[in-house]
């Protein structure tokens, strides 16, 4: 069993910052790409940012220059630093990881339970 646990969501004012964390735990052989999706109720889920195991990153155009993704491979943790927040960043944020569990050979995508980010004055 592999689990992802997110933390760090909450309320921020426009222009403010929040930092999300997501830690993977369980029987893990290897973690490849990690990243973050977000979803507004009633709308599709959108990829926000991703980071490979070697540190290459990618961002949605809507967050480039404002959000920074990073990871600590020793802690199996991915972070999302969100600066210059806008009301349209309000959503539930889900982390994900592409993982090979211990004793397995196939890669599977594991997702967290989601954390709500609200940007409002």
Q: Gyration radius, to the nearest Å?
A: 14 Å
Main β sheet profile: 7 strands, mixed
Structural class: mainly beta
Number of helices: 0
Structure description:
- By secondary structure, the protein is mainly β.
- Helices cover 0% and strands 60% of the residues.
- The chain is built from no helices and eleven strands.
- It has strands at 2-7, 10-12, 18-26, 28-39, 45-51, 57-59, 67-72, 77-82, 91-101, 108-111, 115-119.
- Strands 2, 4, 5, 6, 9, 10 and 11 form a seven-stranded mixed beta sheet that branches.
- The model has no long low-confidence stretch (mean pLDDT 96).
In short:
Helix content is 0%, strand content 60%. The protein is mainly β.
Indicate the topology.
Elements: E1 2-7, E2 10-12, E3 18-26, E4 28-39, E5 45-51, E6 57-59, E7 67-72, E8 77-82, E9 91-101, E10 108-111, E11 115-119
Parallel strand pairs: 2-11
Antiparallel strand pairs: 1-3, 3-8, 4-5, 4-9, 5-6, 7-8, 9-10, 9-11
Core attributes:
mainly beta; seven-stranded mixed beta sheet; 121 residues
